[in-house]
Amino acid sequence: MIDWRNHDTAWSEWRRAMEGDRMHHGWILAGKSGLGKRDFAVAAARELVMEPGVHQPEREHPDILTLTHLPKDEKEEKKRDEGKPFQTKRNISVAQIRAMQKRLTTRPTLGARRAIIIDPADDMEPGASNALLKSLEEPPQGTFFMLVTHRPSRLLATIRSRCRVLRFPTLSDDELRRMLDETGGAKDSAARDAAIRAAEGSFGAAMRFMDQDMGPLADLIERLIIDGDPAFAARGELARVIGPRADRDRIQAVLELAQAIVAEHARQAGAPEQAKPLIDAHGELVALAGQAPTYNFDTGLLAMGIGTLLSSASAASEPANG
After folding, report:
1. Does residue 205 form part of some domain?
2. Rounded to two decimals, what is the model's pTM?
């Protein structure tokens, strides 16, 4: 079990609300990806539905419903059932919300309360968001909603207005280092430090960078930003290291790593004119990361596009004066 060092404030607010006379029925758990919001939601939901003297199952709880991405198709569903890694659908569908709402017409199984966790809520398709809004407007007695979100602005304003927000802060570099050491995620100190630098306070991102062996990519990204790439050699190397058949997770990790390193260079820029191309490149990378999950990019072309964005932000790419 991970010891999340950034959850203390959220726990204080949650437990204070539970002790009150009228606990709010809708909660948004907000913060960047990889901060343990899902773990908090599950643990908080168990506290919520627990009643003295009533046995609580250790695993699946009948009064805690979790809605998340389903397997992409029957083949991926079979992989899930076998405990293997599987690909998921891109959105949480209206059918999932309506199936959950049917469950709400019955009483909770073990006590007086039921918790609904939607993770990530910002991936609900429009019909699902509209359907959920009806339940938030007229919540069944004893039902509480916990919406895990990495980008709260993607939720409908009407959903946000009906929920109380718990915010989860990012982790310090020292906290990330301790967590990686404690969980056995830091087999190599150099790779660990590179992952921490790129993760920008997200333990999940740090673990993902470690799993994806992002050290060589970090070096290439640095080279493109500092030296540019007039001969296109670094861009070709970037495409090779990313891999010709990189899956969606690796592409997303590459884009997140590039964003983090560009942002770091922008913060360290000595003058506005030096920061501007880095800020522009960062914006383009963010847009590309938003498109990547829903577009079928050619991996080689995508890698070249990322390399071009990075090299265009390099001071070495600017024409000399005079």
Report:
1. no
2. 0.81
